[in-house]
Amino acid sequence: MSAPRIAQFKLVLLGESAVGKSSLLLRFARGVYEDNRESTIGAAFLAQNVRLEPDLVVRFEIWDTAGQERYKALAPMYYRNANAALVVFDLLSQESLARAQSWVRELRVQADDGIIIALVGNKLDLLNQLKAESPNSSGKIGISEDAKSYAAEAGLLYYECSAKTGENIEAVFKGVAEKMPINEYFSSQEEEQQHAVDLGASSSGCAC
Amino acid sequence: MSDSVELVWSRSAVYIHPTKNNKDNIAGYLSLVRPPDGEILISWVPESLIKLSKQDYESYVQVDLSLDGEVTQKNQVFVSKPPSMSVGSLARSSHAFSIKLSDLYSMQMREPSLGWWYGSILLFTKQAETLPVLFFHDDESEVEKRRTKTMQKKRDDWGGEFFMEKLENYVDIRPSTLEKGVYLINPSAQDTLAFAPPVTTSNEVSGPNSAKAATWGDLKWNIFEKLAQVTRYSRKASQSMFDRTPAPLRSMLNIPEVEQLGQDFDSARVFLAEWALGIVQDQEDFQRKNININLNTYDSHFDDFSIVAQSIERRNPVTLEEWESFFDENDGRLTVTAEEVKERIFHGGLEPQVRPKAWLFLLNVYPWDTSAVERASIIAEKRNEYYRLKRKWWENIDMQENDSFWKDQKNRIEKDVLRTDRNIPLFEQSETPHPDPDSRLAQSGANPHLEQMRDMLITYNEYNENLGYVQGMSDLLSPLYVVLQDDALAFAAFCGFMERMERNFMRSQEGMRDQLSTLGHLTNFMLPKLYSHLAKADSIHFFFFFRMILVWFKREFEWDDVLRLWEVLWTNYYSSQFHLFIALAILDLNKAYIIERLHYFDEILKFINELSMTLDLDTVLTRAEELFTKFKLALDLVNWQNNQSEDTKSQTEVTEDLRMLLSREIVDQREQARPPGATGG
Ligand SMILES: Nc1nc2c(ncn2[C@@H]2O[C@H](COP(=O)(O)OP(=O)(O)OP(=O)(O)O)[C@@H](O)[C@H]2O)c(=O)[nH]1
Ligand SMILES: [Mg+2]
Questions:
Q1: What's the pLDDT at B266?
Q2: Touching check for B217 and chain A: CB below 8 Å?
Q3: Is residue B648 part of a domain?
């Protein structure tokens, strides 16, 4: 079998501090989870592949940003030219969902038009645990419903996952990978190659 | 023993530089010897010559090392008579010379400039002969190394000073009030009047246009003007003038006016010679070190700039024993200067046991010039202060329940404390359950140190109302708490640290922006090739240094190295902003790779991010010190160059932020009052 074709895209992680952006990325890219990892300052970078078909790989270049409010002004540097954004919130924090919504608004205005945005609720394990502890509770637990309906309204991909247990993590990245403009990526690549060939042909003169 | 002389004083690593080429430098011993007839001689003999006699060599070494080269009456040391004892004659082949003290007319002292040139001495005889210039390579001198180790070395002292001190035992040395650095030896009344007139009390400067200028002043200015023309001309025309030391002198003296002047007033000749030689020699030094005055070529020249006048070496950390030896046993006051202690810490850092003591000084919890009793009382005060501040919010139940800003900040602090340095044993997860299961900190079990961290940060949030807590601060506090292991002291130290770090956390980001922009200017100035590469890569905002500067490289080095780096930076030894030279050093160490391989901001950011935990601290510190040294001399050079040319257009501008890097005062940038409704950090 020949080597798979690789399409490369830029993805950025945004969301309030401590919702679990770094944990989520680490789970996805390295398969590990660590309680109480340090907060992110500035931004961190990782690259990770997602195999969509036996001969097709999407390679994500991922920027993990700092959620701290004070350094919000730096974010445009990281989402500039991004093909995808995961806007992460904590399934148990109403506030973090509000922050996520404001990120979505900012991306709509500032980022590339074609950017694919996924709203990702993290810490699903905690939500499940709470639900298990109060099975008969009639009141709603967490903010799943609000988030889901917001995502539908705003036309976002929506996922719930847990970096801690790893539940649903693959699905998030795979779902986003599938939305990537893969065909466009390859055709623009071909164009570039063609351009190079054309140049080569013209410079070497007519071979007839 | 007719052929031997008593060796009174000697000093190794005194060089002559016969040509511009460093390879031709000759190492030797400068010494004072007493022949049997009793009249002291100054002699300089090449080391190679001395080494011909094992016994002589041992004697020279012994005298050099005997506590600043002094020999007591009892253990007199004798050596062979230095060559060419005849007054003032030079043994051409070996360059050795010796002259009688009574033949010494004057001398000129030229202080070393760190990284720029070695300190040197010019000796002038009454016969107006020119002796080789003596260069003190103090970095190679065994005595200097010992003095540095035993903390006797002062910031600016150098070999020439010791020579002069010694000389003062035998002759009357009078500084010229007309020309700094020139000293007359046993001057006659006439000479004194001419060269060392009493300084007048009026502020009037004798200049060419000053009607009140003294006669000699007029003459002097006249000559200076002439000389200025000559040197300017020769700089452009050719190097031939500098080829041999006496040559420029001769050509100077051939100017008719000067010649006339010389005849009119004989001693003027010597004065002029001193002055002129000084200038010429300095220029030779510029050339010797192959530095072009064109700023654009600094980079390439610095690359092969191998001589730094004071060798840069890391030293062992200060031990507890050494630390204690700095203080008086009785009253606990420093017996050395704070400057010396800081120099020591800058170059070596501290052993772990010393840190709890030394950091309180470095972080301004108490001043260096206090007694043990005074320090104890300051500590008691700070302790009261901390508990008072803490009680204030602790007891304010209303605020805790209703103030949304406060609740928000507490939340943020707890989130961060849980994520700060948890791999350090002190902050480890505890198996014992937390007494209050509703506390956010409960997930880490009952670890009192996490509670302390939280309380200190909440207290700081209340104490510095304008700034409040901002993320990143927990990273700055944690090492202080781990080292001091005392909440009140750590809080006091943290407040001291924050004095200079407040600028990093401003809502407007002004302080961070300023530092990144200064780093940009500095890179442009020192590493122009790299800078233009970064410009092409859209990266001259230097954002990839954001994390390093925000928390002072806390995430780039291992824990122990962070402690070392911070104590070095706290000394403000060269600059209160030495951390920017650390950043510059990191760039410099990686510039080849960056220029060759990285062409986009993303790539550069990724690369710099990934340097984390791969950097060797000593290498970075040494490089940073070298870069600072070069920076300082480059500024000197620019100043010098700008002074040379009257044409303001051709002058090089150095931005104020770069000049500020020479300052050792911390940059005081404070947050404004918190606007209503603003959230915390
Ligand atoms: N229970 C649970 N805890 C999680 C999960 N993901 C993250 N956490 C915890 O949440 C805290 C914050 O996680 P991080 O990954 O550092 O958060 P972040 O969004 O990267 O935060 P910033 O870097 O400050 O923006 C960590 O202390 C984790 O222990 C999860 O899936 N389940
Ligand atoms: Mg993070």
A1: 34
A2: no
A3: yes
